[in-house]
Amino acid sequence: MTSPRFPVPMPTRDGVSPSCVALPYGHWPTIADFLVERFPAISREAWLSRIEANDVCDEHGVPITATRRYESPLRVYYYRALDAETPIPFEELVLHQDDDLVVVDKPPFVPVTPTGKYVQQSLLVRLKRKLGLDDLVPLHRIDRNTSGLVLFSVRRETRGLYQAMFPERRIDKHYEAVVPWHEGVSSVPAVYRSRLEDDEHFMRMREAPGEPNAETRIVLREARDGHALLELSPVTGRKHQLRVHCLALGLPIVNDPFYPTLLPAGNDDFDKPLQLLARSLSFVDPLSGALRTFESPRRLALPAA
Protein backbone atom coordinates (compact mmCIF):
# COMPACT_ATOMS: atom_id res chain seq x y z
CA MET A 1 0.00 0.00 0.00
CA THR A 2 1.30 3.45 -0.86
CA SER A 3 0.12 6.94 -0.08
CA PRO A 4 -1.66 8.43 -3.07
CA ARG A 5 0.04 11.10 -5.14
CA PHE A 6 -1.84 13.95 -6.71
CA PRO A 7 -3.94 14.17 -8.75
CA VAL A 8 -6.06 11.70 -6.80
CA PRO A 9 -9.33 10.50 -8.37
CA MET A 10 -11.16 10.30 -5.02
CA PRO A 11 -11.66 13.15 -2.54
CA THR A 12 -10.75 13.19 1.12
CA ARG A 13 -13.68 11.80 3.10
CA ASP A 14 -14.23 12.49 6.78
CA GLY A 15 -10.60 13.52 7.07
CA VAL A 16 -9.26 10.34 5.43
CA SER A 17 -7.45 10.54 2.10
CA PRO A 18 -7.80 7.52 -0.18
CA SER A 19 -5.12 4.86 -0.07
CA CYS A 20 -3.50 3.59 -3.24
CA VAL A 21 -2.20 0.19 -4.34
CA ALA A 22 -0.35 -0.43 -7.59
CA LEU A 23 -1.38 -3.63 -9.37
CA PRO A 24 1.74 -5.71 -10.10
CA TYR A 25 2.08 -8.04 -13.07
CA GLY A 26 0.20 -11.23 -12.29
CA HIS A 27 -2.64 -13.55 -13.27
CA TRP A 28 -5.49 -12.80 -10.87
CA PRO A 29 -8.88 -13.26 -12.56
CA THR A 30 -10.29 -9.98 -11.28
CA ILE A 31 -9.10 -6.87 -9.44
CA ALA A 32 -11.31 -7.94 -6.54
CA ASP A 33 -9.46 -11.28 -6.34
CA PHE A 34 -6.15 -9.43 -6.11
CA LEU A 35 -7.40 -7.11 -3.36
CA VAL A 36 -8.65 -10.05 -1.28
CA GLU A 37 -5.27 -11.79 -1.57
CA ARG A 38 -3.21 -8.61 -1.08
CA PHE A 39 -5.06 -7.59 2.08
CA PRO A 40 -5.95 -10.82 3.91
CA ALA A 41 -7.15 -8.93 7.00
CA ILE A 42 -10.08 -7.62 4.93
CA SER A 43 -12.68 -10.21 3.98
CA ARG A 44 -13.98 -10.75 0.45
CA GLU A 45 -17.40 -9.65 1.69
CA ALA A 46 -15.94 -6.38 2.96
CA TRP A 47 -14.21 -5.68 -0.38
CA LEU A 48 -17.38 -6.47 -2.32
CA SER A 49 -19.33 -4.16 -0.05
CA ARG A 50 -16.85 -1.33 -0.69
CA ILE A 51 -16.95 -2.01 -4.42
CA GLU A 52 -20.75 -1.99 -4.47
CA ALA A 53 -20.69 1.39 -2.67
CA ASN A 54 -18.31 2.78 -5.36
CA ASP A 55 -15.60 3.20 -2.72
CA VAL A 56 -12.93 1.59 -4.94
CA CYS A 57 -11.85 3.12 -8.25
CA ASP A 58 -8.96 3.16 -10.70
CA GLU A 59 -6.50 5.98 -11.36
CA HIS A 60 -8.87 7.47 -13.93
CA GLY A 61 -11.73 7.73 -11.44
CA VAL A 62 -13.63 4.78 -12.93
CA PRO A 63 -15.31 2.66 -10.22
CA ILE A 64 -14.07 -0.90 -9.91
CA THR A 65 -16.75 -3.57 -10.34
CA ALA A 66 -16.76 -7.01 -8.75
CA THR A 67 -16.18 -8.68 -12.13
CA ARG A 68 -13.67 -6.27 -13.66
CA ARG A 69 -10.75 -8.21 -15.11
CA TYR A 70 -7.32 -7.75 -13.61
CA GLU A 71 -5.26 -5.06 -15.34
CA SER A 72 -1.60 -4.28 -14.80
CA PRO A 73 -0.06 -1.78 -14.50
CA LEU A 74 -2.89 0.15 -12.90
CA ARG A 75 -3.36 2.03 -9.64
CA VAL A 76 -6.41 1.35 -7.53
CA TYR A 77 -7.69 3.77 -4.90
CA TYR A 78 -9.85 2.92 -1.91
CA TYR A 79 -10.88 4.29 1.46
CA ARG A 80 -9.28 2.58 4.40
CA ALA A 81 -11.84 1.71 7.06
CA LEU A 82 -11.94 -0.08 10.40
CA ASP A 83 -14.94 -1.72 11.99
CA ALA A 84 -14.39 0.16 15.25
CA GLU A 85 -11.71 2.33 16.82
CA THR A 86 -11.03 2.75 20.49
CA PRO A 87 -11.49 6.45 21.31
CA ILE A 88 -8.37 8.15 22.66
CA PRO A 89 -9.58 10.50 25.41
CA PHE A 90 -7.06 13.29 24.82
CA GLU A 91 -7.31 16.30 22.52
CA GLU A 92 -4.64 17.95 20.41
CA LEU A 93 -4.06 21.71 20.59
CA VAL A 94 -3.35 23.83 17.50
CA LEU A 95 -0.68 26.32 18.58
CA HIS A 96 -0.11 28.08 15.26
CA GLN A 97 -1.62 28.16 11.77
CA ASP A 98 -0.67 30.18 8.71
CA ASP A 99 -0.72 29.69 4.94
CA ASP A 100 2.20 27.23 5.05
CA LEU A 101 2.49 25.68 8.51
CA VAL A 102 0.35 24.22 11.26
CA VAL A 103 2.00 23.61 14.63
CA VAL A 104 0.21 21.19 16.93
CA ASP A 105 0.70 19.98 20.48
CA LYS A 106 -0.02 16.24 20.30
CA PRO A 107 -1.31 14.32 23.30
CA PRO A 108 0.14 10.91 24.21
CA PHE A 109 -1.29 7.70 22.70
CA VAL A 110 -2.33 9.46 19.47
CA PRO A 111 -0.43 8.35 16.31
CA VAL A 112 0.62 11.12 13.94
CA THR A 113 -0.69 9.30 10.86
CA PRO A 114 -3.14 6.42 10.32
CA THR A 115 -1.54 3.17 11.36
CA GLY A 116 -2.66 -0.23 12.56
CA LYS A 117 -6.00 0.05 14.31
CA TYR A 118 -6.05 3.87 14.25
CA VAL A 119 -7.44 5.94 11.37
CA GLN A 120 -10.02 8.43 12.63
CA GLN A 121 -8.12 8.72 15.92
CA SER A 122 -4.83 9.63 14.22
CA LEU A 123 -3.62 13.22 14.57
CA LEU A 124 -3.56 13.81 10.81
CA VAL A 125 -7.17 12.75 10.28
CA ARG A 126 -8.33 14.66 13.35
CA LEU A 127 -6.70 17.83 12.01
CA LYS A 128 -8.03 17.40 8.48
CA ARG A 129 -11.54 17.21 9.89
CA LYS A 130 -11.04 20.06 12.36
CA LEU A 131 -9.26 22.49 10.03
CA GLY A 132 -10.74 21.45 6.68
CA LEU A 133 -7.26 21.11 5.13
CA ASP A 134 -7.25 18.09 2.81
CA ASP A 135 -3.61 18.58 1.72
CA LEU A 136 -2.20 18.68 5.25
CA VAL A 137 0.99 16.58 5.57
CA PRO A 138 3.22 16.00 8.63
CA LEU A 139 6.77 17.27 8.14
CA HIS A 140 8.14 14.84 10.73
CA ARG A 141 6.90 12.20 13.18
CA ILE A 142 7.04 11.57 16.88
CA ASP A 143 6.11 8.26 18.47
CA ARG A 144 2.49 7.53 19.30
CA ASN A 145 3.39 7.37 22.99
CA THR A 146 5.31 10.66 22.92
CA SER A 147 3.51 13.95 23.49
CA GLY A 148 4.44 17.39 22.20
CA LEU A 149 5.09 19.39 19.06
CA VAL A 150 4.48 18.27 15.48
CA LEU A 151 4.84 20.45 12.37
CA PHE A 152 2.48 20.07 9.42
CA SER A 153 2.77 21.46 5.89
CA VAL A 154 -0.32 23.13 4.42
CA ARG A 155 0.75 23.81 0.82
CA ARG A 156 2.46 21.57 -1.72
CA GLU A 157 4.23 24.57 -3.23
CA THR A 158 6.31 25.24 -0.10
CA ARG A 159 6.38 21.75 1.42
CA GLY A 160 9.79 20.76 0.09
CA LEU A 161 11.48 23.81 1.63
CA TYR A 162 10.27 22.84 5.10
CA GLN A 163 10.86 19.12 4.65
CA ALA A 164 14.50 19.77 3.78
CA MET A 165 15.16 21.29 7.22
CA PHE A 166 15.03 17.89 8.89
CA PRO A 167 17.58 15.79 6.94
CA GLU A 168 19.81 18.87 6.68
CA ARG A 169 19.64 19.33 10.48
CA ARG A 170 18.49 22.93 10.27
CA ILE A 171 15.94 22.54 13.03
CA ASP A 172 16.64 22.40 16.77
CA LYS A 173 14.47 19.95 18.71
CA HIS A 174 14.39 19.75 22.48
CA TYR A 175 12.64 17.09 24.54
CA GLU A 176 12.04 16.47 28.24
CA ALA A 177 11.98 13.07 29.90
CA VAL A 178 11.40 11.78 33.41
CA VAL A 179 13.67 8.85 34.30
CA PRO A 180 14.51 6.83 37.42
CA TRP A 181 17.46 8.23 39.35
CA HIS A 182 19.62 6.00 41.53
CA GLU A 183 21.69 6.82 44.57
CA GLY A 184 25.29 7.30 43.65
CA VAL A 185 24.52 8.70 40.20
CA SER A 186 25.55 12.33 40.06
CA SER A 187 25.64 13.20 36.37
CA VAL A 188 24.84 12.21 32.81
CA PRO A 189 27.08 12.45 29.74
CA ALA A 190 26.72 15.73 27.84
CA VAL A 191 26.62 13.79 24.58
CA TYR A 192 25.74 10.15 23.96
CA ARG A 193 26.44 8.42 20.64
CA SER A 194 25.80 4.87 19.49
CA ARG A 195 24.78 2.79 16.52
CA LEU A 196 21.07 1.96 16.34
CA GLU A 197 19.65 -0.89 14.27
CA ASP A 198 16.33 -2.69 13.95
CA ASP A 199 15.73 -5.15 16.74
CA GLU A 200 14.52 -8.72 16.19
CA HIS A 201 11.05 -7.41 17.05
CA PHE A 202 10.03 -5.00 14.30
CA MET A 203 8.60 -2.50 16.80
CA ARG A 204 11.87 -1.93 18.64
CA MET A 205 15.41 -0.69 18.03
CA ARG A 206 18.65 -1.82 19.63
CA GLU A 207 22.23 -0.68 19.97
CA ALA A 208 24.81 -2.51 17.88
CA PRO A 209 28.59 -2.42 17.40
CA GLY A 210 29.90 -0.15 14.68
CA GLU A 211 30.10 3.46 13.62
CA PRO A 212 27.63 5.60 15.60
CA ASN A 213 24.62 6.80 13.60
CA ALA A 214 22.67 8.37 16.48
CA GLU A 215 23.64 11.29 18.71
CA THR A 216 21.81 12.87 21.65
CA ARG A 217 22.77 15.84 23.82
CA ILE A 218 21.72 15.49 27.46
CA VAL A 219 21.28 17.97 30.30
CA LEU A 220 20.26 17.04 33.85
CA ARG A 221 17.63 19.58 34.92
CA GLU A 222 16.52 18.23 38.29
CA ALA A 223 16.94 15.13 40.43
CA ARG A 224 15.17 14.19 43.64
CA ASP A 225 13.32 11.37 45.38
CA GLY A 226 14.41 8.67 42.95
CA HIS A 227 13.60 10.46 39.67
CA ALA A 228 15.26 12.98 37.38
CA LEU A 229 14.14 15.41 34.70
CA LEU A 230 16.36 15.36 31.62
CA GLU A 231 16.54 17.69 28.63
CA LEU A 232 17.25 15.64 25.51
CA SER A 233 18.29 17.21 22.22
CA PRO A 234 18.56 14.73 19.33
CA VAL A 235 21.20 15.69 16.78
CA THR A 236 20.09 12.81 14.57
CA GLY A 237 16.56 11.49 14.18
CA ARG A 238 16.66 7.72 14.47
CA LYS A 239 13.56 5.75 15.40
CA HIS A 240 13.19 5.51 19.22
CA GLN A 241 16.57 7.20 19.59
CA LEU A 242 15.88 9.00 22.86
CA ARG A 243 14.20 5.99 24.42
CA VAL A 244 17.06 3.61 23.53
CA HIS A 245 19.76 6.06 24.59
CA CYS A 246 18.14 6.59 27.98
CA LEU A 247 17.84 2.83 28.41
CA ALA A 248 21.51 2.38 27.52
CA LEU A 249 22.43 4.82 30.29
CA GLY A 250 20.41 2.77 32.78
CA LEU A 251 17.71 5.45 32.83
CA PRO A 252 14.68 4.03 30.98
CA ILE A 253 11.98 6.66 30.49
CA VAL A 254 9.12 6.31 32.96
CA ASN A 255 6.07 4.42 31.63
CA ASP A 256 7.81 3.29 28.44
CA PRO A 257 5.81 0.33 27.04
CA PHE A 258 8.70 -0.75 24.75
CA TYR A 259 11.89 -0.42 26.80
CA PRO A 260 13.21 -2.27 28.69
CA THR A 261 10.21 -4.64 28.38
CA LEU A 262 7.89 -4.76 25.37
CA LEU A 263 4.38 -4.83 26.77
CA PRO A 264 1.51 -6.53 24.91
CA ALA A 265 -0.13 -4.40 22.23
CA GLY A 266 -3.54 -2.96 22.91
CA ASN A 267 -2.99 -2.49 26.64
CA ASP A 268 -2.75 1.30 26.79
CA ASP A 269 -3.00 2.65 30.32
CA PHE A 270 -4.23 6.20 29.84
CA ASP A 271 -3.29 6.97 33.44
CA LYS A 272 0.38 6.20 32.74
CA PRO A 273 1.54 8.10 29.64
CA LEU A 274 5.15 7.85 28.53
CA GLN A 275 7.08 10.62 30.27
CA LEU A 276 8.64 11.98 27.09
CA LEU A 277 7.68 15.39 25.74
CA ALA A 278 8.70 17.08 22.47
CA ARG A 279 9.03 20.43 24.26
CA SER A 280 10.26 22.93 21.66
CA LEU A 281 11.23 23.48 18.02
CA SER A 282 13.37 26.30 16.56
CA PHE A 283 14.37 26.98 12.97
CA VAL A 284 15.10 29.73 10.48
CA ASP A 285 12.08 29.90 8.22
CA PRO A 286 13.17 29.01 4.67
CA LEU A 287 10.61 31.44 3.23
CA SER A 288 10.97 34.54 5.41
CA GLY A 289 14.44 34.03 6.89
CA ALA A 290 13.03 34.76 10.36
CA LEU A 291 13.87 32.70 13.42
CA ARG A 292 10.78 30.83 14.57
CA THR A 293 10.40 29.08 17.92
CA PHE A 294 7.46 27.05 19.17
CA GLU A 295 6.98 25.57 22.64
CA SER A 296 4.55 23.04 24.03
CA PRO A 297 2.35 24.28 26.88
CA ARG A 298 2.72 20.84 28.50
CA ARG A 299 5.11 20.28 31.39
CA LEU A 300 6.58 17.14 32.84
CA ALA A 301 7.00 16.97 36.60
CA LEU A 302 8.87 14.66 38.92
CA PRO A 303 6.60 12.34 40.92
CA ALA A 304 5.73 13.54 44.40
CA ALA A 305 7.67 11.85 47.15
TrEMBL record:
A UniProt-annotated Pfam family: PseudoU_synth_2
InterPro entries noted in UniProt: PsdUridine_synth_cat_dom_sf, PsdUridine_synth_RluA-like_CS, PsdUridine_synth_RsuA/RluA, RluA_PseudoU_synthase
Residue ranges of domain Pseudouridine synthase RsuA/RluA-like in the record: 100-247
Leader sequence segment: none
GO MF annotations in UniProt: catalytic activity, acting on RNA; pseudouridine synthase activity; RNA binding
Highest taxon above the source species: Bacteria
Annotated PROSITE patterns: PSI_RLU
GO BP, one annotated term: enzyme-directed rRNA pseudouridine synthesis
PANTHER family linked to this entry: MITOCHONDRIAL RNA PSEUDOURIDINE SYNTHASE (PTHR21600), PSEUDOURIDINE SYNTHASE RSUA_RLUA-LIKE DOMAIN-CONTAINING PROTEIN (PTHR21600:SF84)
Protein name: Pseudouridine synthase
